[in-house]
Design a protein that fits this description.
- InterPro entries: DgoD-like, Enolase-like_C_sf, Enolase-like_N, Enolase_C-like, Mandel_Rmase/mucon_lact_enz_CS, Mandelate_racemase_C, Mandelate_racemase_N_dom.
- It comes from Neorhizobium phenanthreniclasticum.
- This is Mandelate racemase/muconate lactonizing enzyme family protein.
- By secondary structure, the protein is α/β, with parallel strands linked by helices.
- The protein folds into two domains: 114 residues, Enolase-like, domain 1; 239 residues, Enolase-like C-terminal domain (TIM Barrel), CATH 3.20.20.120.
- The protein contains 13 helices and 14 strands.
- Strands 4, 5, 6, 7, 8, 9, 10, 11 and 13 form a nine-stranded mixed β-sheet that branches. The chain has a three-stranded antiparallel β-sheet with strand order 1-2-3. Strands 12-14 form a two-stranded antiparallel ribbon.
- Helix 10 links the parallel strand 9 and strand 10.
- Helix 1 crosses helix 3 and helix 2 runs antiparallel to helix 3.
- The termini are far apart.
- The mean pLDDT is 94.
- The structure holds magnesium ion (MG).
- The site of magnesium ion has 5 residues, from loops.
């Protein structure tokens, strides 16, 4: 079959960059140690080219999405228009220089949206799915876990657990918070209810200090949980190193990191067993791949973080997962929000969870068709 957009030796020039700030009410609030989220936002980045190819990307922008859109259109766009969309490395470096100081924060999240769109263009121009451009591992499906049993009362937590088991998930994440005694009780209770054949892990969203984390770690070890996610604040690297020595459950973190250098210390000494960058935060596909590759060198697994994100973030993560040898398992949100349900038209069955797996799209680029009516509908005015 002829690729939709045959590869060309000519440059594919960027003609426009449009940032669409989108907002929605979640179908079901997410309840974590940080609080309850019922409204959430992202920015959809549209990159247009003179070859007629349009790439789409996603920026994690949970709050103030219009501020992100402004940053993309005023600081990044002038560095992109007129350039060859396929020089992703050079464009990334140029965008990085649009603000001074250490790399992080809104700038890297904004770059993420553009970077994902550029990979989408590269794939469409080559007639290949992004997973193959990244050096695919050849799998048609990738393993996911259900996210998540919320930090809600016992009866509701039991219902959520049961629902995920009934939907066929063999692995399920549980949110924990304070008080510690309650968290330990929840850990034991859900293990008993799930039985030994369901894989369980927890996410604390930085709820604990070191002493509390050690206590929760003991409960996790006693109940056979497979990882302890973000027990401490991401800056507390010394705490993570100490916890590693005193906790026999693998530690997972990384969704709060923006760039590879921020994960360096905890990966290099293998404090973390699992690194979880979010592609819509960590500089897009280019920087997330650097992080995952670096983790792989140190026998640390790569497990993509997806949190209250849209279909583009999810799909870009599936392509990375399908391309990287140290991929372990990806997060899968079970309550499909408008950002996932409405923003793109998917092949039947594609990206819909089946027995704890998701399909890897096979079309060129990211392999999704954006529903521009939904973009208009969800756009923040
Ligand atoms: Mg998390």
């Amino acid at each position: 079959m002829e690729p939709a957009h045959p590869a060309t030796k000519e440059a594919i020039r960027i003609t426009d960059v449009i940032a669409h700030p989108l907002s929605q009410t979640l179908p079901k609030p997410t309840v974590t140690s940080w609080g309850t989220y019922s409204q959430v936002s992202i920015v959809l980045v549209e990159v247009r080219t003179d070859a007629g190819i349009i790439g789409v990307g996603e920026t994690l922008a949970r709050f103030s999405p219009k501020a992100y859109a402004e940053l993309i259109e005023t600081s990044l766009k002038p560095r992109l228009v007129g350039q060859d969309a396929r020089n992703i490395g050079a464009l990334w470096q140029s965008m990085r220089r649009s603000l001074s100081g250490r790399a992080g924060g809104m700038l890297i999240e904004a770059i993420a949206g553009v970077d994902i769109a550029l990979w989408d263009i590269l794939g469409k121009a080559a007639g290949l799915p992004v997973a193959k451009l990244l050096g695919g591992m050849g799998g048609e499906r990738i393993d996911v876990y259900a996210a998540a049993v919320n930090w809600v009362d016992d009866a509701e937590a039991d219902r959520e657990l049961e629902r995920y088991i009934n939907e066929g998930f063999p692995r399920i994440k549980v949110k924990v918070a304070n008080p510690v005694k309650e968290a330990c009780r929840r850990i034991e209770r859900l293990r008993k209810r799930a039985g030994d054949d369901i894989g369980l892990c927890v996410d604390a969203n930085w709820a604990y200090n070191l002493d509390e984390a050690i206590e929760v770690g003991r409960a996790l070890g006693a109940n056979g949980y497979f990882w302890f996610e973000e027990p401490l604040a991401p800056e507390n690297e010394q705490g993570y190193e100490e916890l590693r020595k005193r906790c026999d459950v693998p530690i997972a973190a990384g969704e709060s990191n923006f760039t590879a250098d921020q994960a360096q210390r905890l990966v290099a000494n293998r404090t973390l067993s699992v690194l979880q960058p979010d592609v819509a935060r960590a500089g897009g596909i280019s920087e997330t791949r650097r992080m995952a590759d670096y983790a792989g060198l140190h026998d640390v697994a790569y497990a993509p973080h997806i949190g209250m994100s849209g279909i583009i973030c999810e799909t870009a993560s599936v392509h990375l997962a399908a391309a990287l040898p140290n991929f372990r398992v990806m997060e899968c949100e079970c309550d499909l929000s408008p950002f996932k349900r409405e923003l793109a038209d998917l092949d039947p069955g594609c990206l819909r969870q089946r027995n704890g797996t998701l399909d890897v799209p096979t079309g060129p680029g990211l392999g999704i068709e954006i529903n521009w009516d939904a973009v208009k509908r969800l756009r923040v005015q």
